[in-house]
Amino acid sequence: MEKYITVFINGDPFNFNDVMSLKDLLLYLNFNLNVVIVEYNKEIVADFNYDNIFLKTNDSIEVITIVGGG
């Protein structure tokens, strides 16, 4: 029996059955790491820490994409 991990990304559940870092998840979901701000469990994360955070069940991730314009 496989153990699934469920995290919440921008309020929506996301299930996976492997160990993923925050960076792995962002890349898997095709986010451009140069133009996002990430909040992990209600704390803003510096981009150099994405590799050091490994996801656990019920973690909450908010991803904000920076868009330029005029």
UniProtKB/TrEMBL annotation:
UniProt KW Chloroplast keyword:
yes
Please verify whether the record's keywords include Plastid: yes
Q: PANTHER family from the entry?
A: SULFUR CARRIER PROTEIN THIS
Gene field:
ycf40
Show the NCBIfam families listed in the entry: thiS (TIGR01683)
Q: Which UniProt keywords apply?
A: Chloroplast, Plastid
Q: Which SUPFAM superfamilies match?
A: MoaD/ThiS
Its protein name is: Conserved hypothetical plastid protein Ycf40
Could you tell me which InterPro entries the record lists for this protein? Beta-grasp_dom_sf, Mopterin_synth/thiamin_S_b, Thi_S, ThiS/MoaD-like
The record ties this protein, via Pfam families, to: ThiS
